Amino acid sequence: MGMDFRSDTLTKPTAAMREAMARAEVGDDVFDEDPTVHALQDEVASLFGKEAALFVASGTMANVAAVLAQTSPGTEVICEEGCHIFQYEAGSAAAFSGVQLRTIDAPRGHMRWDEIEARIRPDDIHDPPTVLVCLENTHNRAGGTIYPADVWAEIARGAHARDLRVHVDGARIWNAAVASGVSLREIAGPVDTLSVCLSKGLGAPAGSLIVGDRDFIARARRWRKRLGGGMRQVGILAAAGLHALAHHRERLQDDHDHAQILARAWADVPGASIDPGAVDTNIVIVEVAGMKASDSEIEAALGARDVRLLGMGARRLRMVTHLDVSRDDCEQAAAVIRELFA
Asked: Could you tell me the domains of the chain?
């Protein structure tokens, strides 16, 4: 397989995780009778300081259900232009929720309250009512950036003062907590709902959760059913999530350190643009507009040396560190980058 940096979704369950899955006590989760799912939901709700949590199949399903449970057709959601909900969920907000997304192009993916407030619709029959603000932390397309705590809190205060709810796509919120040293409970405190993923940095094979108050989770559970997301003896997957939470959270710092190795290598390449100091977590996005080689030529040259990365378009390439690439892998990949292009 070589050194595959395309995504942190590429991780495979460890032997210990597989053992935990094999031992999992299961029940029918559609009947709300799977004890391992209950344990996972309770653990995640507690970690984030929220009343309840709901296990779902994927991060996209988590965001879809969360938007459905907090909007109605014809309303409007404000989000950042590069966010996953807008860019990578196949138009689900329109297809399922019937909502309109109003976007803001924000540096590092971090909207400010004044920008959001300026886009809240007036109470006018010509306008869709603004009902929800969606944030992303860490922000994928911006390079795994962490929302500044003061900006985050100001957005939540301002939104709530205007009777808007705040949802967070927190697929990589675990990375944000480890890198910032701020607890999950503190991060989640100002906002209403979050989606969190188990199958990226934590290394589980599948699954995400939605967290929030009990009434919201009850609505989201019904939407999960409508979306075909009711699974039966899914405690097997929930057990993988519990194992990941117990054993793979603190090691995320290794991924962040490894990302710096790659970022520094690209910083040595003439025509490549990246500031290693701006790489907050495990995602390295380098702009290669100044290089003579095309994106596909760069990918092919690295691929021939068993280093895989992902083209993001607009002359941007992404490398993501994760559980299945070691420090030695990252140092070897960095050496290849310098050898080929520096």
From this structure: 13-247 (3.40.640.10), 251-341 (3.90.1150.10)
- 299-302, Cβ contacts within 8 angstroms, sequence gap of 24 or more: 301/340, 301/341, 302/336, 302/337, 302/340
Instruction: Provide the pLDDT confidence category of residue 2 given band limits of 50, 70 and 90.
Output: confident
User: What pLDDT was estimated at residue 342?
Assistant: 87
Query: CB atoms < 10 A from the CB of 1, how many?
Result: 8
> Residue 251 pLDDT more than 90?
yes
Q: What pTM was estimated for this model as a whole?
A: 0.95
251/321 Cα distance (integer angstroms): 12
DSSP string, 250-310: TTHHHHHHHHHHHHHHHHTSTT-B--GGG--SSEEEEE-TTSSS-HHHHHHHHHTTTEE-E
- CA–CA gap between residue 27 and residue 40 (Å, rounded): 14
What is the token pair recorded at 287? Answer: 């702009």
Is 227 within 8 Å of 65 (Cβ atoms)?
yes
DSSP structure class, residue 109: G
Average pLDDT of the chain is 96
How many helices and strands (H and E) does the chain possess? 14, 12
For residues 258-280, give the mean pLDDT. Answer: 97
What 3-state DSSP class applies to 39?
Answer: helix
Other Cβ atoms within 10 Å of 130 Cβ, number:
23
